[in-house]
Design goal:
Elements: H1 5-13, H2 18-26, H3 32-43, H4 51-64, H5 69-82, H6 93-119, H7 126-135, H8 138-149, H9 157-169, E1 170-172, H10 179-184, E2 187-191, E3 194-198, H11 204-222
Length: 223
Amino acid sequence: MSSSFGDVLSEKMGNITLTDIAVVMAGAEGSARNVLSSLSRFQNGKRKPSKKKVVEIAGALGSVRKMSRLKTNHLRDELMRAAGHGDPRYSDLRTAAKLDLSESEERKRLSPDCHRALQTVHTLSENEIQTILGHVGVSTMKLIIAAAERGEEIEVIQLQKISAALQKTATPSSSAVSSAEAKKAATVINAGRACIQIDGDVSPVQMKVLQSAAEMIKSVLKL
């Protein structure tokens, strides 16, 4: 039996109160009382929160609990599913199998056209192209193909960063850095049975790309 939004929210809150969340959501000039009233109705099941509200609630709870961005995103996804906004593949295995099969077939069909489109970007090596093709989704493939057909410059900076992270930065756990080495690193991002270690500063944009790469690595290692 799937849990209600209120049940999941209460579980994730722990010792955090609705008032704590309301204060963050309201901000300096907002009315925490009005926000608290809405949160109470969401928790009691009297109203269903919109996707926007779920994002705001997850962000506020993550802020109060001082959660990392990655953990806050996971929290958001759990609350989304509990509120009925989640991807159906998370609630029904039969639907999941159909969606995965459909996605795989579509990616296979689009792969040749996407490969030709990426070849027009002279900064990409064949190895980078193959890495990108192996990890981007159908929507991204369609955007790349459409841009090439219109003769537009294809924006692949983010794809290049993901490709580089997958090929050079992932460290398998069998030869993972020691605890002492990990402490010396400026940033260590877990990726399932692997980890990504970065020396030096990491910008918010770079962190977002690296976190996406970490999720991809986790999926690859599960195969």
